[in-house]
Amino acid sequence: MEKKKTIFLIFSLTILLWFIPVNFASASETNNNAAYYDLEVGGTQSFTLIDENHEEVIITVEEILPTSNVSLFAVSNGSYRISGTKSGIWEANYYITVSNNNITRAYSPSATVLSGSFTSTSLKVDNTKQATYYLDWKLGMFTSKHYLRSNISSGSLIISY
């Protein structure tokens, strides 16, 4: 008798769980090797992306408090720390200052090589909507160009590599 009750209970729970809608909450979105920082959530958000060589790239955006003039329609005025890790190759980060939906400053770049070496690194504000940390990387005879880019578009902070 006890066995029948247990089987009935497991069957009932299975049927019940089958019909309960499940929504997965995400603080961020990723698309086309880019991470979209969710301004409503703010704070620190991390993204795991897969590059064209099927290697992980981890992107983290950290809101530097205090911020003011928070808006749901524009990137919050303030500062953000942009970090990226190309699995087994490099780690890099820099800060940006945002004012009136524009990147007004990019500063304090830092890069660490995990394998190979950097032949050059440079951080630039490309225009009022974009800042890029350029990383030229070398391993033996193989060289490649990498970047960690912040872009403001349609009220979002988009990070690509």
UniProtKB/TrEMBL annotation:
Domain DUF5626 residues, every copy: 38-159
Pfam families, sorted: DUF5626
Protein's recorded name: DUF5626 domain-containing protein
Organism: Jeotgalibaca ciconiae
Keyword terms: Signal
Signal peptide (from-to): 1-27
Coiled coil: none
